[in-house]
Amino acid sequence: MSKKRMEAEKLTRLEARTRFIQGAGKLALLACCLSLGFVVVATAFPQRRALDKLEAKLTLARERERAVTAERDHRRIELRALREDPAYLEIQARDRLDYSREGERVLRFKRDK
C-alpha cells in the first residue's frame, strides 16, 4: 500500500503543479492582454487630441464662414437697394452729405464699432 500511496502523492503533486502552471499561464495571458490594451489606448490619446484640435479649427472656420456669408448677403441687399430703390438711395445720400430739408428734424445716433 505504501507504493500506491506514494504514487497517489506523486500524482497529487503532479496535478497541483499542473494546476499551478495552468493558472500561471492564464495569468500571463491576462497580463499580456491588459498590456496590449493599454498600448492601444495610449496610442489613441494623441490621435484623439489631434482630432479635438481639428474639430475646434473646423468650428472656428464655420463661424467665420457664417459671418462672411451674412456680410456678403447684407452687401448684396444694400447694392440691390441702391440700384433699384430711389428712396433708399436718397436716404443714403442725404445721410452721407449731411443734407436735410427745411423743417425736418434729424436725429443722429453714435454707433459703437
Specify the number of helices. Answer: 2
Largest sheet: none
Q: Note the overall shape.
A: rod-shaped
Elements, N to C (H/E): HH
Calculate the mean pLDDT score and round it.
88
Rounded to an integer in angstroms, the radius of gyration calculated over CA atoms is: 42 Å
Helix content: over 70%
Return the structural class: mainly alpha
Structure at a glance:
With 113 residues, this protein is an all-alpha fold.
What does the model show?
Helices cover 84% and strands 0% of the residues. By secondary structure, the chain is mostly helical. It has helices spanning 2-84, 86-97. It has one domain (2-97).
List the helices and strands and how they pair.
Layout: H1 2-84, H2 86-97
Question: Notable features of this structure?
Answer:
113 residues; 2 helices; mainly alpha
